[in-house]
Write a structure and sequence with these properties.
- Its cofactor is a divalent metal cation.
- The chain is of the alpha+beta class.
- The chain folds into three domains: about 5-75 and about 125-150, Ribosomal Protein S5, domain 2, CATH 3.30.230; about 75-120, no CATH class; about 150-290, no CATH class.
- Helices cover about 60% and strands about 15% of the residues.
- The protein contains eight helices and six strands.
- The protein has a four-stranded mixed sheet with strand order 1-2-4-3. The protein has a two-stranded antiparallel ribbon with strand order 5-6.
- Strand 1 (about 5-15) and strand 2 form a beta hairpin.
- The N and C termini lie close together (about 10 Å).
Length: about 290
């Protein structure tokens, strides 16, 4: 069955000196958009994470949050900028000469000057860390997909029920349509009789007028296409693949047929049924926006 585009998942893992917690949040979107928020030192993992998600998801905006904690102290290195230290020393000597002051090189004072000494942590070993992070990513994705499936099942049941309601409205319109033509024939006959009195009505001319009205007001083709759209809609809901765009297209076609029926209908009861149908169709459209 189709899946919902919304969901949430969380995964945890620990190893290689780190503890990871990955959270994924999916919301509706026309296409697939993946946004990853993680520490800069783990930027190497962005492309592999996106690849894993793309294998399972075709539509949604998915935000991935990677939380990292170190479980082991990293080796910290001290780097000395020798060229900068010598440049400081040379400049201080020159300044002492200008001021005619005594100058003695002081290594400790030089080391305290800006940027002479710097600390640097050992770089993250991506090859060693990735399998641990990958486990958390896959766990979060699995949980998200399970939630999307549960939500998708609920959406499908609701859409099938609403489509059944639309079929009922279409059947109501189909049953009413022949009565409209008959009522028109009777009203036309009564009107002619009121105008002409006892003069005999030309049944041939009357039948012609009624036939012209029936042709203008005919909604048989629209009802056939509408029921065909219902069939295709319900069939798509049984497919195990992304069908959101197809469902959206079918809703547009249903709306087109209902609007045509409404424009042709010269009847209060059919017009009321059309209004009810458009209201139900709008509810279906809102639900379909959540289908992948």
């Amino acid at each position: 069955m189709p899946e919902s585009m919304t969901g949430f998942g969380r995964g945890k893992s620990e190893g290689a000196g780190y503890r990871f917690e990955v959270e994924m949040k999916a919301v509706n979107h026309r296409y697939l958009e993946i946004v990853i928020r993680n520490p800069r030192s783990f930027s190497f993992a962005e492309d592999p994470i996106k690849k894993i998600i793309r294998e399972k998801v075709s539509r949604s905006r998915i935000e991935v949050y990677v939380n990292v904690k170190q479980t082991e102290e990293k080796l910290r290195l001290v780097k000395v900028d020798k060229d900068l230290a010598l440049s400081y020393d040379k400049s201080l000597k020159e300044l002492a000469e200008v001021l005619q002051a005594e100058y003695i090189s002081d290594i400790y004072r030089l080391a305290s000057l800006p940027e002479v000494l710097a600390t640097d942590e050992e770089e993250t070993d991506g090859k060693a860390v990735w399998p641990v992070l990958e486990a958390a990513v896959r766990e979060a994705l699995t949980e998200l997909l399970e939630m999307r499936k549960r939500e998708g099942d609920k959406l499908v049941r609701d859409l099938v029920e609403k489509t059944g309601g639309m079929r009922g409205i279409a059947a109501e319109i189909a049953a009413r349509a022949p009565q409209v033509v008959e009522e028109y024939r009777q009203k036309l006959k009564d009107r002619i009789a009121a105008l002409l009195g006892d003069v005999t009505v030309d049944e041939t001319r009357l039948a012609t007028e009624v036939a012209l009205f029936a042709d203008r007001a005919s909604i048989e083709e629209e009802l056939v296409r509408l029921n065909s759209h219902f069939d295709q809609f319900e069939h798509a809901l049984r497919l195990a693949e992304p069908v959101g765009r197809k469902l959206d297209f079918l809703i547009q076609e249903m709306n087109r047929e209902i609007n045509t029926i409404g424009s042709k209908a010269n009847d209060f009861l059919i017009s009321r049924a059309v209004v009810n149908g458009k209201s139900e169709l709008e509810k279906i459209r809102e639900q379909v926006q959540n289908i992948e």
